[in-house]
Fold this protein.
Amino acid sequence: MRTKLSIFIALLLIGAVSVNAQSNNDTKAAEQVMKAYKEGVESLSTKGLTNFFTKDSEVFESGGVEGTFVHYLEHHLGPELGQFKSFKFSDYKVETKLDLPYAFTTETYIYTIVLPEGDRTIKKSGVATSILKKENGEWKIMMTHTSSRNAK
């Protein structure tokens, strides 16, 4: 009886370790999507950015409803990136909570935009909350909300 109980406990522990390892992998993978999206924005290129979002995604920015990411990219973000000399994130932090098949992220950062005319600089503190969904083994952003204010 003790042997069966020991085997049962060992199997439970192995299962718990396996679930925890998968949870860590999912957390890292979801966070990598968020970081890769930010790196894409920093490159000032829109190439490949739609790959990080679901087709029916929703984007909210500073009190505005921007529509799907494709709409946001075509009518807001894309034209803006074309006007910037640089766009850099600093003090970037991301926290993630999993509730499979979803991941909930909160990002905090400072972003600095340099405009070409006179090297005018805009510096803001920002926060973004996003919901990602795991589809076909890949994390995709399905909803994101960003806001910012002047950096101190």
Notes: The helical segments are 2-42, 69-81. The chain has one domain: 2-150. Residues 2-150 form a domain with the Nuclear Transport Factor 2; Chain: A, fold (CATH 3.10.450.50).
